[in-house]
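Continuing the batch. This is chain 6 of the set; chains 1 through 5 are on the previous pages. Same settings as before, nothing changed between runs. Recording input and output for traceability.
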Amino acid sequence: MGEKVAEHEWLGEEYFEDPHTFHARLRADAAATEVVLPRSVKVWLVTRYDEARQLLADPRLSKEFGGFAPLFDRHYVGTRARDVFDQSLVQHMLNSDPPDHTRLRKLVTKAFTPRRVEQLRPRVQQITDELLASVREPSEVDLLDLLAFPLPITVICEMLGVPDDKRDDFRLWSNVLVGVGNDPMSIQEAGTAMAEYLSALVQSKRDDPGDDFFSELVHASEGGDSLNHVELMSMAFLLLVAGHETTVNLIASGVYNLLRHPEQLARLRADRSLLPGAVEEFLRYEGPVNQATFRYTTEDVRAGDVVIPAGELVLVSLMSANRDESRFPDADSFDITRPTGGHLAFGHGIHYCLGAPLARIEGEIAVGALLDRFDVELAAEPETLRWRESTLMRGLYTLPVSLVPRGAR
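Output for chain 6:
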């Protein structure tokens, strides 16, 4: 699954097609293993459940963005210029430690309340119904284009107050920034375009606030504190990417695995009360995030049978942890009736995904509405489908399906 070069394994094309086999081999050998990412950076990859959960919450692993640059330089083993990311997009709560993280998250949580998320449910249902209403007769479609992409991008863009005509741009910029194999110039251009747009968006919300979530965030304050311009740009970037990239993959991979397991699909059709549990199994079995974002050790840290030295880059594979047999018996089986809870698809600790409730709502509504309206079949051989070349995200490029309106047969 990996190519051994200079004693470390490089994550390449075969890894993207079948990371599960690769992870299983690593889990059998050690809790953490040194690997080289496609962008030629050497990291420790944590693959076992117990150690993954432990390190996600370990304060000795820092996410402070200012500490990454020298470590990326030190652990870079490539020959070309290293990719440079626009710094105005990285100063958000996912790249910070307490007390900065505490401050940032508190301000965001003030605007992103459970009540506000639950109020989005009717709108999510309406968007879903409108998207699916375009298919009125038996059709072959790409489910990503029909539903999995437009639903979450519409929801998050409405939350941020982004107009319709910018959504395709966001999809393009986001795909370049979270993928691998893109040349440094493309990454820089996408980052610059994203930063320029978000800077203007922040200013427009400051000058002329609407009733959207982002306007509330721009004007949120706590004890006289508020987010500055660059923090707001970074937060918008985080919400945009985390708020749509992940849910695209949750919906598409969830439907894909239902279609690969017709007995599970039949159970869900027969008993719609299984839907919330099915979404949890989608998240565990083929979660939208492969490896959690970068951390680095501030001192020596033990991960099971391995000691990771200070000053090392660390990636925790959420996807590998969720297939660990020691935590999930028969972990490679897809079972929508599996007892829910415990999976790490949304992370763990202080960086646990703030958008988890919204992702669950979107997943349940999208899959439920699809099954209510259509008989669905896979319209391509599974081995012909390609997985995105990203160590961060796990998702298909396309998902061709055959849709027959229910009752049309």
